């Protein structure tokens, strides 16, 4: 944790303390310009490469966890069986393809459009609360929804754990 804090704080302090502060210049990608000013072209390229590798690593990690989550849900009967198919290397093939297709579909949207989708979900919840619906009523509605028995058991055990 200390290493992460120092890894973010030290470059930020060095960048803001070593060059004159021009708030209009601090936009997306300006940190690379600061690296070029302070260390030259090689530091800029090194920082861009490290940033790209970091982002790719986080993406691969997220995709892997999503695909294994789909595999586990299929093995428990919460999703169709075809999600439980594995490649010859033991990786969840259908989960990877499903996650990748979701990413490809969302990649056409801008950040603002993705944010609007999230806000739309929040608006729906606010509307339910504005109509006077409580969490208990929403939970009661879920009791009448056609859910598989193992899904209900999973929800109850999660609730019992306090999660």
Automatic annotation (TrEMBL):
The keyword Secreted does not apply. It is a multi-pass membrane protein. One of its GO terms (molecular function) is polyamine transmembrane transporter activity. The chain crosses the membrane at residues 88-111. InterPro entries: AA/rel_permease1 (IPR002293), RMV1-like (IPR044566). It is found in: Cell membrane. The keyword Membrane applies. One of its GO terms (cellular component) is plasma membrane. Pfam families: AA_permease_2. Keywords: Cell membrane, Membrane, Symport, Transmembrane, Transmembrane helix, Transport. Belongs to the amino acid-polyamine-organocation (APC) superfamily. Polyamine:cation symporter (PHS) (TC 2.A.3.12) family. This is Polyamine transporter. It comes from Canna indica (Indian-shot). The lineage of its organism: Eukaryota, Viridiplantae, Streptophyta, Embryophyta, Tracheophyta.
